[in-house]
Amino acid sequence: MLTRTLYASSLLSALVAAAPAPQVSGYTDADGPFPQMPSAIYPLATSFGPDSQIPAIETSVTLAPPRVSSDVTGPTRHGPYSGTPTTTGAVKASTTLVESIAPLPPNPTHTYYNAGGVLLNPAPAPYTPSGGLGTNGTEPRYMVNSDFDFESLALALYQEWIELDLFNNGLAIFSNEDFIAAGLTAEDRAYIAYMAIQETGHATLLTNMLGEAAPVQCTYDYPFRTVREFIDFNQKVTRWGEAGVWGFLSHLDSREASQLLSQSIAIETRQQMSFRQMLGLFPMPEWFEVGIPQSWAWTYLAPYISSCPQNQTRLAWQNFPALHVVNQPNPNRISANNTQPWELAGNRSGDPSDSSIPNDESCVNLNETGYSCGPAISRNRSEPLSFPGRQVNFTWDAPGQAVGPNNSYVTSTTAGAPQFVAWVSQLNLTYTPLTVTGEKSGYTYQPASVVFEGDPALNNTAFVALTDTDLFLTPFNLTMINPHVAALGMYTAG
Ligand SMILES: *[C@@H]1O[C@H](CO)[C@@H](O)[C@H](O)[C@H]1NC(C)=O
Ligand SMILES: *[C@@H]1O[C@H](CO)[C@@H](O)[C@H](O)[C@H]1NC(C)=O
Ligand SMILES: *[C@@H]1O[C@H](CO)[C@@H](O)[C@H](O)[C@H]1NC(C)=O
Ligand SMILES: *[C@@H]1O[C@H](CO)[C@@H](O)[C@H](O)[C@H]1NC(C)=O
Ligand SMILES: *[C@@H]1O[C@H](CO)[C@@H](O)[C@H](O)[C@H]1NC(C)=O
Ligand SMILES: *[C@@H]1O[C@H](CO)[C@@H](O)[C@H](O)[C@H]1NC(C)=O
Ligand SMILES: *[C@@H]1O[C@H](CO)[C@@H](O)[C@H](O)[C@H]1NC(C)=O
Ligand SMILES: *[C@@H]1O[C@H](CO)[C@@H](O)[C@H](O)[C@H]1NC(C)=O
Ligand SMILES: *[C@@H]1O[C@H](CO)[C@@H](O)[C@H](O)[C@H]1NC(C)=O
Ligand SMILES: *[C@@H]1O[C@H](CO)[C@@H](O)[C@H](O)[C@H]1NC(C)=O
Ligand SMILES: *[C@@H]1O[C@H](CO)[C@@H](O)[C@H](O)[C@H]1NC(C)=O
Asked: For 47, 108, 152, 482, which has the most beta carbons within 10 A of its beta carbon?
């Protein structure tokens, strides 16, 4: 009571404070119709509870649908696979109709245009404009409804399973002191543990929509050696995880499955943003998230799966040869310009940047606005990780390499000699010419494309491919790039 009285009187005396000067240039007449509130934060509370007793009843959970996994998946095993696979290659249908999908003119029924903003068709019911899918009263069926749906959700389930293991793995192998040294507290570790538990829910949801052939948990081979590298890897895994799903959601036959998957991928995108914050990067340096084809997500994911149980449901997607970014901007550096060639924890496309650089070149424990990259809600890097015009050097692998669970998938490409670098970010696909400098090596310069004025297209961790042509594609037909992809990698832009 005493503290409340004191607060009320200090509040009254602060009401006379002068109105602040305009803080957003060009935005005038912004006076709030309320009195200026005090910004004093003292006195602080010193005692906590017992609290007010408020009206409530006794209640309990009556229905808790079972999950397909517990919070942690029990004894684990990690590292590369060294055996011989009992089967090889992607799942194939008994018949494949054509070698590639030919372009068609726009769908003849897609002609709706409403210049007047009034309803053009009879309304099926009050307050119910004509149109939409699944709006005519049919009972929802929350199941995959085609091979396309099955393979897409099965891929997403492989992704949820690795995330469940991955988030727990970093918490298990690094000490509390390791996390503190990377600026992450016990509350942050609890947050990462909670993200792992979210994956058990996502895995359950997808399993339920797939049926008994749903893929199960595998064993994994991770690239990180430090907490920073763990966080960087998480930032990349969730990046291709969300982008892989955004790429196919709108193409699913089952609108019901799309609805539920949208509601889980919204969580994945929050995880991605949170890992960026833990890495001291600007949380969402773009206006739109990007979508990529399923075969891209599978190409990024597969190298980190060492083996899966016998009878695991296999996938139909393609594994492309890896594209390596030699001078991948290192987010642990004060100045990413100083990144040395191959400054990475390993040589797979999604591998994190090397965090073991000299302390006086690292931004992790700096306390300097514009330069620090310790965990924060937001960071304003004075020196960007990358910039338009930056030379980017690549090497790439030949096709025919064994990758993925039990080394039982094989990288392949149908593209001719690579001539372009395709940059996929936000709503845009931008090509730059590839200058080939040797056997499977070359360079290009980062493009300066924008989505809409003021929004540079290439920001956040982006996707890069070598292609044999500069085919014009947009987010809804991006998959038609696949026959032209020679190698596929990731780029730490922003
Ligand atoms: C993959 O390896 C696991 C563990 O050794 C084994 O149980 C499984 O049968 C293998 N699967 C294939 C497709 O080789
Ligand atoms: C209801 O709409 C679906 C498409 O969402 C369509 O397939 C189905 O035939 C419609 N049912 C009726 C009774 O009109
Ligand atoms: C990317 O976003 C950050 C944060 O908003 C910004 O500072 C930076 O200039 C952007 N990068 C490019 C290439 O515009
Ligand atoms: C794998 O599938 C075969 C055929 O359906 C079955 O006989 C066998 O028991 C299964 N093995 C495992 C480990 O589930
Ligand atoms: C990084 O390199 C670019 C291109 O040479 C240059 O414009 C920029 O000033 C450099 N950044 C810093 C912080 O020196
Ligand atoms: C990564 O792989 C590329 C191409 O296979 C090779 O040129 C490069 O030396 C490798 N880098 C490291 C650090 O292993
Ligand atoms: C960081 O610097 C600011 C301003 O100099 C200071 O107020 C703050 O206490 C410092 N924080 C740490 C963790 O050193
Ligand atoms: C943020 O960074 C930009 C340069 O990228 C700089 O112009 C601006 O002053 C910085 N703002 C703060 C608050 O540090
Ligand atoms: C890229 O490779 C070329 C040689 O082909 C080299 O001269 C250049 O310094 C490299 N650029 C970077 C940014 O590493
Ligand atoms: C980027 O995407 C936007 C939105 O689809 C489009 O208007 C713009 O032309 C694209 N820009 C480039 C350079 O492709
Ligand atoms: C992809 O879609 C765009 C329209 O958004 C179209 O102009 C382009 O021709 C399409 N590309 C192919 C290969 O069909």
From this structure: 152
